[in-house]
Amino acid sequence: MAEEPTGRHELDELIAGAAALGALAGNEEVFRAAVDAFRAEDGESMAGLLARHQLAEQCEIICRWLRSKETVLLCLELAGPPTEEVSGDAFGFAQVVAKIAADEELIELLARAVTERSRESWDELVKQADAARFSHELCHWASAVHYRLVCEVVCNPKPVVARQSLVAELGAAGRAIGALAADRELFAEAEKAVIADRCLGLQDVLERAALGPWCRLVCEWFCSWRCFLRCIELCRRFPLAAPESPIGEMLEFARATAALPQAGIERLAAAALRGDAELVGELAKEFGYERFCLQFCHWVCLLRCTRFCFCVCPPRNLGIFTKIGALHYATDVHSAAGNTGLTVADARAFYSTLRLNGGLSLVDGAPLVEYRFETVNTNSDGSTLADGTPILPTSWQPVVPAQIAATEIGVFERPIAGPPFFEEIRVVVNGTNPADYNITPSPDGWIKVPPMFPVPPMVPVPDPNWRFYPGDALINFMTTTLPYTASVDETGVVAGASANAPLMTDVHYGIRMRLRNQGTSGSGAEAGTCPHIAINNTLYNNVSHHPYWPGGLFGASNELAVSDIGIEELRVNPCSTLSDSLTVKFTAAHSHLGSVSAELQGPGGPFAFTLVPDAGSTAGQNLYGNAVPAGGWSFGSLAPCAYLLSLSVEVLLTTGDSVPYPPLTDYIAFCKK
What we know:
The protein is α+β, with helices and mostly antiparallel strands. The chain is elongated, with a radius of gyration of 31 Å.
């Protein structure tokens, strides 16, 4: 029995799509508005427009047509018309994609070129990635991913605050393709299955490669590659140049397709699905459809891919870990082995409680799933365990319930008649509020994901309208529960002196998510791995603040950094009034020390200082020395009055969502005669 679909579903959608497009294209202004809404990712405008023309139920059909059409047009703009024989080298293409996915700058450049329709960015990407040989294949794949994400926004029944990141999606797909290509024999099996339209064969390969959670992304990559080759083969005799007016050309394509007789659509599509280049050419000429051969082929192929990948990747509930707070660990953190584990933008380490997030995707009727997070203590560049031995599968340790702060992972929601017109119940991992639906992880960290349509006792009222809407948060991970240098004793340190060691107190951990069906055992499948990050939760104890004030602060503890400012004249003669001089001393210390500044408040101020570190200071870690007046003022120029001297210390830490703010500040006051 053949595995591939018969084509009837594709033919039915082509006929329905031609009719819907014909309705839109009957009015050029309406058609252009639909394209504008698609390009702007404006679901509200698209929904309103389609509703006004009785096409609301056809949104996905229309959007798939727009996806296929925009991919062709965009790649003509970026990569130009294919003028040479394409290689068909899937393995070489996979290596290029894996190379791009492993490079933060390249994957961002790829996403930017596609989303901004930037030929300049595209040319730079192709040059840096040495990808000229696969320029067209690369464009068709990246565009297919981009426009799929656009359709998920445009045709979503609920408003989408922020769509899935294209950088993250391309990166995840590229890494999965790279993982498959690491086994050349397995990759060759997958390629043969795709070419032969054997969906179960590809499914088997991906399961053996432990790529089940990434199944759709891998299948989409193979499909975009296959469609590009197939459509070039079928329509090579009818080359397509980049149009002067892309939307105008789209309008003509929509009208020409709507004008085809149903039998003509079916015959042309069937020939394309069979790969019959001779018949495709004959029919295109018969219908005067030569200009649209390539575009029609890509539309047909996208529909076939949708069916094929449904067969390869049957409905399943999925989860994925992609971000720490708002930061994509693959692109916003130097997380790859051999790197620092600090953030890319500002070299911050992580601290406190981290919101590990990404998303859950649920399918009604699919087996329920559960997930957990695991950590591994690495060396400073994430290449080995902390003790220098290799990282093994057994090296990873579960994040247990005591390490998870209360985390809202979504809501149960149902519509109700009166304001606010919906009822919600928060779904919280490790929660304690009886008004919420609380999920307690198992002792070894597994968190059971609720079904899409919950029932009592999950919800109080039996109602089929209840639905679980996952958020992006997965767990709030308390990194303070990891072993680290808990505190540094700063006893005896005064302003102007070096802080006590140790200062470089980072620990490094890899974090990964695992996913499995509820009721099964084992470690589950890969669902996102951050190879390593730098974590610093060190606190500083017994930090002296202006100790020369009798009754002042002594030995403050649990401080995030050392921040100490003092006046030498008061150290010699505490509580005296200054008359002749002002000698300011400072000490600021932390493993990740940011900006440090001193300021004087008083009449005529504020007054700035230049910090002059002593020779033994270490930039970015341990600064101490003198602060001297800057900007032309002097102690003698100050009016007799009371003044407040302050030291501001920035610490380069982050949770991924926030940074320590305001900066740590130490004060000391004095009076001048």
